[in-house]
Structures are given as C-alpha cells and as structure tokens.
Amino acid sequence: MTRHRKSLYRTCISCKSADHVIPVVYGPLTPRLAEEGSAGNLYYGGETVMLDNPPWFCTVHGLLSGAGKPADAITAG
After folding, report:
1. Counting runs of H as helices and runs of E as strands, what totals does the chain give?
2. 21 CB-contact burial (10 Å; exposed 0-12 / middle 13-18 / buried 19+)
3. Into how many domains does the chain fold?
4. In terms of Cα–Cα distance, which of 28, 5, 18, 7 is closest to 58?
5. Among candidates 3, 5, 21, which has minimal Cα distance to 67?
6. Less Cβ crowding at N or C end of the chain, within 10 Å?
7. Cα–Cα distance, 72 to 56 (Å, whole number)
8. What is the torsional sign of CA 44, 75, 59, 71?
9. SS3 helix, strand, coil % of the chain, rounded to 5?
10. Residue 72 burial (C-beta neighbours within 10 Å; 0-12, 13-18, 19+)
C-alpha cells in the first residue's frame, strides 16, 4: 500500500468513523489481491485506475469515500 492512502479523511461519510474503513485497490486483479479482498482487508475497485478514484470503502455502510474528501462520496454499486 502506498503512503498517500494514509489520508486524514479515512472516515466513513455516513457515521464519521474509521473503524470499518478499508483501502480501495484499483488495477489488475491478482491472486494476492483477491485473497486480501476475501479476507476483508481491502475493497477491489476495478481495473480502471484514475486520479479521482475513491481511496476508501466503509464495510458497514457500503460507501466509497472519494478522492481524499469525505464530501466527494458515491455509493458502491
């Protein structure tokens, strides 16, 4: 995991907690990423890598926190 993911905004936009927030990983799905995703350590966001991809996912509310700001959120789908 890269250091830029250690954001001050690692909180759920719904409950404002960081307890159930995990990193979102983008790019080719490798066996290791699939394993980590199955274990609940990360959320796989797909193969498309863009600068504004949301970096965090709340496992309780199913929300992606967008691009470093909690206000830029979208629901996972």
Report:
1. 1, 5
2. buried
3. 1
4. 18
5. 5
6. C
7. 11
8. positive
9. 15, 25, 60
10. middle
Quick one: average pLDDT of 40-55?
Answer: 91
Q: pLDDT digits over 4-34, tens only?
A: 445 557 888 888 888 999 999 999 999 999 9
Instruction: For residue 33, give the amino acid letter.
Output: L
Q: Report which DSSP code applies to 4.
A: G
Cα-based distances in Å from 58 to 20, 30, 68, 73, 76: 6, 22, 14, 11, 9
* Look-up of token digits 């907690």: 17
Name the residue range of residue 44's domain.
Answer: 3-75
